[in-house]
Design brief:
With 113 residues, the chain is an alpha+beta fold. It has helices spanning 5-10, 58-71, and strands at residues 18-21, 25-29, 37-43, 81-84, 100-104. The chain is built from 2 helices and 5 strands; from the N terminus they run αβββαββ. It binds guanosine-5'-monophosphate and zinc ion.
Length: 113
Amino acid sequence: MTDCIFCKIAAGELPSTKVYEDDEILGFRDLYPVAPVHVLFIPKKHFANLGEATAGNQALLGKMLLVIGREAAGLGLTEGYRIVSNCGESAGQSVGHFHLHVMGGVDMMWPPG
Ligand code: 5GP
Ligand code: ZN
Protein backbone atom coordinates (compact mmCIF):
# COMPACT_ATOMS: atom_id res chain seq x y z
CA MET A 1 0.00 0.00 0.00
CA THR A 2 1.66 3.20 -1.17
CA ASP A 3 0.84 5.46 1.76
CA CYS A 4 1.58 2.99 4.55
CA ILE A 5 4.67 3.63 6.66
CA PHE A 6 4.98 -0.02 7.71
CA CYS A 7 4.81 -1.15 4.05
CA LYS A 8 7.64 1.31 3.42
CA ILE A 9 9.62 -0.05 6.36
CA ALA A 10 9.01 -3.61 5.10
CA ALA A 11 10.23 -2.61 1.65
CA GLY A 12 13.32 -0.89 3.07
CA GLU A 13 12.12 2.50 1.80
CA LEU A 14 12.06 3.88 5.37
CA PRO A 15 14.70 3.04 7.97
CA SER A 16 14.06 0.83 10.98
CA THR A 17 16.09 -1.02 13.57
CA LYS A 18 15.41 -4.59 12.53
CA VAL A 19 15.52 -7.41 15.04
CA TYR A 20 14.06 -10.19 12.87
CA GLU A 21 13.40 -10.75 9.19
CA ASP A 22 12.28 -13.56 6.95
CA ASP A 23 10.46 -13.62 3.63
CA GLU A 24 7.06 -12.88 5.23
CA ILE A 25 7.68 -11.15 8.57
CA LEU A 26 9.69 -8.22 9.87
CA GLY A 27 10.44 -7.39 13.50
CA PHE A 28 11.79 -3.93 14.36
CA ARG A 29 12.10 -1.65 17.36
CA ASP A 30 9.25 0.73 18.09
CA LEU A 31 10.34 4.35 17.53
CA TYR A 32 8.59 5.44 20.74
CA PRO A 33 9.08 2.52 23.13
CA VAL A 34 6.84 2.25 26.18
CA ALA A 35 8.93 -0.52 27.75
CA PRO A 36 12.68 -1.27 27.88
CA VAL A 37 12.10 -3.79 25.09
CA HIS A 38 9.37 -2.76 22.64
CA VAL A 39 9.41 -4.45 19.28
CA LEU A 40 6.83 -4.54 16.48
CA PHE A 41 6.29 -7.62 14.34
CA ILE A 42 4.54 -7.06 11.03
CA PRO A 43 3.59 -9.15 8.03
CA LYS A 44 5.37 -7.78 4.97
CA LYS A 45 2.09 -8.08 3.08
CA HIS A 46 -0.38 -5.35 4.03
CA PHE A 47 -3.64 -5.88 5.84
CA ALA A 48 -5.00 -3.33 8.27
CA ASN A 49 -5.73 -5.35 11.39
CA LEU A 50 -7.34 -8.57 12.61
CA GLY A 51 -10.72 -7.22 11.49
CA GLU A 52 -9.48 -7.31 7.91
CA ALA A 53 -7.53 -10.55 8.16
CA THR A 54 -8.83 -13.41 6.02
CA ALA A 55 -8.46 -17.18 6.05
CA GLY A 56 -5.57 -16.61 3.67
CA ASN A 57 -3.69 -14.94 6.53
CA GLN A 58 -4.18 -17.86 8.92
CA ALA A 59 -0.80 -19.54 8.52
CA LEU A 60 1.01 -16.21 8.62
CA LEU A 61 -0.72 -15.16 11.83
CA GLY A 62 0.22 -18.43 13.49
CA LYS A 63 3.76 -18.11 12.25
CA MET A 64 4.05 -14.59 13.70
CA LEU A 65 3.23 -15.91 17.16
CA LEU A 66 5.66 -18.79 16.86
CA VAL A 67 8.41 -16.46 15.62
CA ILE A 68 7.86 -14.16 18.60
CA GLY A 69 8.01 -17.10 20.97
CA ARG A 70 11.26 -18.24 19.41
CA GLU A 71 12.89 -14.79 19.24
CA ALA A 72 11.84 -13.48 22.65
CA ALA A 73 14.83 -14.73 24.65
CA GLY A 74 17.24 -13.28 22.09
CA LEU A 75 15.54 -9.91 22.54
CA GLY A 76 16.27 -10.04 26.26
CA LEU A 77 12.74 -11.06 27.19
CA THR A 78 13.75 -13.90 29.46
CA GLU A 79 11.43 -12.83 32.30
CA GLY A 80 8.29 -12.66 30.18
CA TYR A 81 6.62 -10.24 27.80
CA ARG A 82 3.27 -8.94 26.63
CA ILE A 83 1.86 -9.10 23.10
CA VAL A 84 -0.69 -6.44 22.11
CA SER A 85 -2.48 -5.69 18.88
CA ASN A 86 -4.65 -2.59 18.71
CA CYS A 87 -7.51 -3.23 16.30
CA GLY A 88 -9.15 -0.02 15.10
CA GLU A 89 -8.70 3.64 15.94
CA SER A 90 -10.85 3.56 19.08
CA ALA A 91 -8.58 0.84 20.45
CA GLY A 92 -5.58 3.06 19.82
CA GLN A 93 -4.44 1.75 16.44
CA SER A 94 -2.48 4.59 14.87
CA VAL A 95 -0.79 2.71 12.02
CA GLY A 96 -3.19 0.86 9.72
CA HIS A 97 -0.91 -2.08 8.94
CA PHE A 98 -1.33 -5.12 11.16
CA HIS A 99 1.32 -5.32 13.86
CA LEU A 100 1.97 -7.09 17.12
CA HIS A 101 3.58 -5.06 19.90
CA VAL A 102 5.96 -7.20 21.97
CA MET A 103 6.86 -5.46 25.21
CA GLY A 104 8.86 -6.43 28.25
CA GLY A 105 12.06 -5.95 30.17
CA VAL A 106 10.20 -4.54 33.16
CA ASP A 107 7.60 -5.83 35.61
CA MET A 108 4.29 -5.45 33.78
CA MET A 109 1.20 -5.55 35.95
CA TRP A 110 -2.22 -6.22 34.47
CA PRO A 111 -4.51 -4.41 34.49
CA PRO A 112 -2.24 -1.35 34.25
CA GLY A 113 -2.50 1.47 36.73
P1 5GP B 1 -0.48 1.39 17.18
O1 5GP B 1 -0.70 2.71 17.87
O2 5GP B 1 -1.00 1.45 15.75
O3 5GP B 1 -0.96 0.20 17.92
O4 5GP B 1 1.09 1.20 17.12
C1 5GP B 1 1.88 1.87 16.19
C2 5GP B 1 3.26 1.91 16.78
O5 5GP B 1 4.14 2.29 15.76
C3 5GP B 1 3.43 2.93 17.90
O6 5GP B 1 3.88 2.27 19.08
C4 5GP B 1 4.47 3.91 17.36
O7 5GP B 1 5.37 4.32 18.35
C5 5GP B 1 5.14 3.11 16.29
N1 5GP B 1 5.63 3.88 15.15
C6 5GP B 1 4.98 4.87 14.49
N2 5GP B 1 5.73 5.31 13.47
C7 5GP B 1 6.87 4.57 13.47
C8 5GP B 1 8.03 4.55 12.65
O8 5GP B 1 8.16 5.29 11.67
N3 5GP B 1 9.00 3.66 12.97
C9 5GP B 1 8.88 2.80 14.03
N4 5GP B 1 9.90 1.97 14.25
N5 5GP B 1 7.81 2.80 14.83
C10 5GP B 1 6.81 3.67 14.56
ZN1 ZN C 1 1.10 -1.46 4.98
